[in-house]
Amino acid sequence: MFGAAKIYNTGHLKNTYHIFHDLEFEKKELLIVLIDDSKKDISLLEEMLLFVNDFKIKTIAYNSPIEALHAIERNEVMPDLIIMDLVMPGIDGKIALSRLKSCVHSDHIPVVIYSSMNNYQQVSQINALDAHAFFAKPIDINSFSKFLHNVIA
User: What is residue 8's predicted lDDT score, i.e. its pLDDT?
Assistant: First the structure.
């Protein structure tokens, strides 16, 4: 299992991912919410999730964080994991993450953030907002798959 990440102020970070909290799922069937304004990135994430064996994974994709937040806050969807882009129009990933973690209906849901902005300031802020992990774009398929296997297996 991954341990807590140590983040050093080095400007642009060399690591392509940072694990802030350990996660474990005991279920064999998972609901994962994907939030990204890019349909292409959502398709890539859905493809990567196909490589997680031994689990049935259902995804629900939202192109708007506002729509996703409303659905979660109204208990229309209760995911086991949220994977969300950082930079989106309207509400960015940090604001959406903050809202998720401040709502009693969603504060327990693990959130993975991904972005092309892989620098100390961004990663530190995401960690402080209680995200469970950060992945830099373009997401390294091997690292992401390994993370999911370790989290879900």
Answer: 36
Residue from 104, 108, 102, 149 nearest 132 by CA: 108
d(CA 66, CA 76): 14
By CB atoms closer than 10 A (0-12, 13-18, 19+), residue 28 is exposed
Handedness of CA 52, 131, 58, 153 (dihedral sign): positive
pLDDT tier for residue 102 given thresholds of 50, 70 and 90 = very high
The chain-wide mean pLDDT, for the chain, equals 80
Burial class (CB in 10 A: 0-12, 13-18, 19+), 2: middle
- CA dist 32 and 1 (Å) reads 20
